[in-house]
Design goal:
single chain; 227 residues; alpha+beta; eight-stranded mixed beta sheet; three-stranded antiparallel beta sheet; 3 helices; 19% helix; globular
Length: 227
C-alpha cells in the first residue's frame, strides 16, 4: 500500500467514527421512525474528497449552469433533492453526483454523514462525505443542463483566512456572517459562499480537527430542528 492509499485509508477510518448530534434528524437506510421517512424538503450533497498530486486533500465542486432558474452560475457541491426511490441520503448524494458530473458511485467510498444544514426555505441539506481513492478513474462528464464546470479545491482553504471575506446579514433579528472564498482554477475564478462554504468549513473542521482561523458566526437557521 503506497502512502496515498494509506493516508486515505486512515482518513476513512477516522471519519467513520464521527457521530452527528442525535437531536438532528438524520435519514438512515432502514429506519422506521416518522422523522426518517422521505420528505420533499430534503436534499443531500456529496463532499467527495481525494488526494491531490501534492498530497493535499481536495474536494470536488461544480459551477451550476447559468440557465438554471435557481442559484444559476453559483458554485455548489454535487447533489440535489431526495427522490422517492432513494434508500437513504447516501444514495441521493451518489445518484445526483452521477447525474450531474458522471461520477460513478462505485468509485466513491461513503464514509460518514454529517449533521444536516437547513436553508432559509426550510430545505434540509444532508452532507455525505465520500472518498475517491483513484482520482484518475474519474473523468468528469458534466450534464450541460445542470453543470457548467467541474473543478476541485483544497479542503484546508476553508479553515484559512486567506482569500476570504465576510458580509454581515440578518435573519429574524439574528445577525450572522456570510462567508465568501475566492478561488482560481485553470484560469477561471470561482466564488464559494453561503451554504456550500458553511458545509465545507464544517467538513474541514472535522477532518483537520481544528476550528477555522476566522470568526464564523453561523446563521441560526442552519441548525434548526425540523420535525
Amino acid at each position: 500500500m503506497d502512502s496515498e492509499d494509506l493516508t486515505l485509508k486512515i482518513l476513512a477510518e477516522e471519519l467513520r467514527l464521527y457521530k452527528p448530534p442525535h437531536s438532528i434528524p438524520i435519514q438512515q437506510s432502514g429506519s422506521d421512525s416518522e422523522s426518517a421517512r422521505p420528505k420533499p424538503n430534503r436534499a443531500a450533497v456529496l463532499i467527495c474528497l481525494f488526494q491531490g498530486e501534492n498530497g493535499d486533500l481536495r474536494v470536488i465542486l461544480t459551477k451550476r449552469s447559468s440557465t438554471l432558474s435557481a442559484h444559476s452560475g453559483e458554485v455548489s457541491l454535487p447533489g440535489g433533492k431526495r427522490e422517492e426511490g432513494d434508500a437513504d441520503d447516501i444514495e441521493t448524494a451518489m445518484r445526483e453526483a452521477k447525474e450531474e458530473i458522471g461520477l460513478d458511485p462505485s468509485l466513491v467510498n461513503a464514509v460518514t454523514v454529517l449533521e444536516p444544514f437547513v436553508n432559509k426555505r426550510g430545505m434540509i441539506v444532508v452532507p455525505v462525505v465520500g472518498i475517491l481513492s483513484d482520482k484518475k478513474a474519474f473523468v468528469p462528464a458534466p450534464n450541460a443542463s445542470e453543470v457548467e464546470a467541474v473543478f476541485d479545491a483544497p479542503l484546508e482553504m476553508f479553515l484559512k483566512d486567506e482569500n476570504r471575506r465576510a458580509e454581515e446579514r440578518e435573519w429574524m433579528g439574528d445577525k450572522y456572517l456570510l462567508q465568501y472564498f475566492d478561488y482560481e482554477a485553470e484560469n477561471e475564478r470561482y466564488v464559494i459562499w453561503a451554504l456550500t462554504a458553511g458545509i465545507l468549513i464544517r467538513t474541514a473542521s472535522i477532518v483537520y480537527q481544528r476550528p477555522p482561523a476566522f470568526l464564523e458566526r453561523k446563521p441560526k437557521f442552519w441548525s434548526r430542528i425540523v420535525n
